[in-house]
Amino acid sequence: MTNASLWMKSEGPETDIVLSSRVRLARNLTDLPFPAQLGDRDGERLTARLKEAFDSLGAAWQLTYRPLSEISPIERQVLVEKHVVSPALIQEPVRFQGLVADPGESISIMVNEEDHLRTQIFLAGLQLTQAWHMANRLDDDLERSLNFAYDSEMGYLTACPTNVGTGLRASVMVHLPALVLTRQVQQLFHALAQIGVVVRGLYGEGTEVVGNLFQVSNQVSLGLTEEEFVHNLTVVAQEIVGRERHARQLLTQSHRLEVADRVGRAWGILTHARIISSDEALKLLSEVKLGQDLQFVKIPGHTTFSELALMTRPGYLMDRAGRELQSMERDELRATILREKLLATREDKEER
């Protein structure tokens, strides 16, 4: 059975609102076609070069390469649910796609998604600068044995024009229930769009928003240095955190009873339901997390909101069961897992 990634089990700065920080670098080898045009011969050359480069890193990075063709469809889905790979990577897997990761999946490198390499660093909480430093060191180590496509004026060359330049995409995953409840979130996102910051759903571009979870990232990667992009998004994330905290304060001052009631109802359903859908579970877990953050209910121990959210996803449930599951079977298993996890760790802190 799959384990949660390290960032899901960890805590970091502002971790009650910023669940994770991610820095991604897009890179292509200089003398090979982009993945969309990669033929068999060039694909074999690419794979051989990449394996040699990863082997040259040695034990310092503890990276393991796996061809996507050797990863089962269920495990691929779990990897998406853990944000280790993008949905695009697993849509039509081909011979030359793969995944490189360390044991805790703080590092993941997608091979032949849209670019030859997409290196990702994940850390818990608001740690964009630390994630960038880690990504930069790994990128430098890889560049000692790989020649990346680079133009002196344009920067790193990528399949998508929005990634040309630094090839960097920094993002934070944020939980914003209070801004949603107070109906301030759309105004905030509109303001962010004006400064080149994009907001997406749970699994990135083209995915829906569930459980008040949003991915916030830079829209382009050209015109500033990597450090400037990371600094600017860190400032944006700090502003988002400040606004969410203010909204939570307003809720506890003016709508305390209503919020406590929402939390109590969510807790009651999660701890008593016998069937529950994926989206409903994540929505209710979001309510309970808000109650936990506002000290209406306490969930001690090592089970975090991110871990519980992962346990509600279809791929995780099928991986746990060891087989494909029908929708109703997943709904029943999901409800069972949530009851067991929440009731086993429950320490009520009832509002007086």
> Could you name the CATH class of the largest domain?
Alpha Beta
CATH topology of the largest domain: Creatine Kinase, Chain A, domain 2
**Order of adjacent strands in the largest pleated sheet:** 2-3-4-5-1-8-10-9
Number of domains: 2
**CATH-defined superfamily of the largest domain:** Glutamine synthetase/guanido kinase, catalytic domain
Helix content: 40-55%
Distance between the termini: 41 Å
Order of helices and strands: EHEHHEEEHEEEHHEEHHHHHH
Instruction: Specify the biggest β-sheet.
Output: 8 strands, antiparallel
CATH structural architecture of the largest domain: 2-Layer Sandwich
Alpha-beta content class: alpha+beta
Low-pLDDT windows of residues: 347-352
Shape: globular
Number of strands: 10
Please tell me about this protein's structure.
It is a single chain. By secondary structure, this protein is an alpha+beta fold. The protein has two domains: 234 residues, Creatine Kinase, Chain A, domain 2; 91 residues, no CATH class. The protein has an eight-stranded antiparallel beta sheet. The protein has a two-stranded antiparallel sheet with strand order 6-7. Strand 6 and strand 7 form a beta hairpin. Helix 2 packs across helix 11. The C terminus is likely disordered.
Relevant terms:
single chain, 352 residues, Creatine Kinase, Chain A, domain 2, two-stranded antiparallel ribbon, 10 strands
Fold topology:
Blueprint: E1 18-27, H1 40-57, E2 64-67, H2 73-81, H3 87-91, E3 98-101, E4 107-111, E5 117-124, H4 128-143, E6 150-151, E7 155-156, E8 168-175, H5 177-181, H6 185-193, E9 197-200, E10 213-218, H7 226-254, H8 256-272, H9 278-293, H10 305-311, H11 314-321, H12 327-345
Antiparallel strand pairs: 1-5, 1-8, 2-3, 3-4, 4-5, 6-7, 8-10, 9-10
